[in-house]
Amino acid sequence: MKKGTTNNPNGRPKGTPNKTTADMRNRVKDFVNAKWETVEADFNQLEPKERLAFFEKLLQYTLPKLQLVGVDADAKISNNNEGFDVTKLSEAELREIANG
To answer: Among 36, 43, 47, 100, which has the highest number of CB atoms less than 10 A from its own CB?
Structure first.
């Protein structure tokens, strides 16, 4: 069998979760749930700076990270299926678009 070849030539269908990943996530979740009282007790014994660092690390798994949003000055915006060049808009027109 050639490297990278499986019995399923199409591979896993798009959107199908990886069973190993799902199983591991469930195991980690179960472990954390079982040990949560110990985690809280240890958390309360940390110095304030360490507590904040720990809390920040936990937030990474609960809050989505913010993405930097940029504007492409050369972008074309569609208006009734007609494109127009954003760079040709006046300052007042840009403010009106930005303010809705």
So the answer is: 43
- Assigned token pair, 73: 């000055």
- Give the number of other Cβ atoms within 10 Å of residue 67's Cβ: 6
The model's pLDDT over 9-48, given as tens digits with 9 standing for 90+, comes to 777 777 777 788 889 889 988 998 999 999 999 999 999 9
Residues 63-100 have pLDDT tens digits of 777 777 666 555 555 555 456 676 777 888 888 877 76
Query: Is-contact 59 67, C-beta < 8 A?
Result: no
In the chain, the N- to C-terminal Cα span, in Å, equals 59
